[in-house]
Amino acid sequence: MAKKSDNKNYKVIAENRRARYDYAIEDDLEVGIVLHGPEVKSLRTGQSNIADSYASVDDGELWLTNAYIAPYEQAMFGFEERRKRKLLCSKRELARLWNATKRDGMTIVPLVMYFNDRGLVKLKIALAKGKKTHDKRASDAKKDWNRQKQRLLRHDV
Question: How far apart are CA 133 and CA 125, in angstroms?
Answer without folding.
Answer: 23
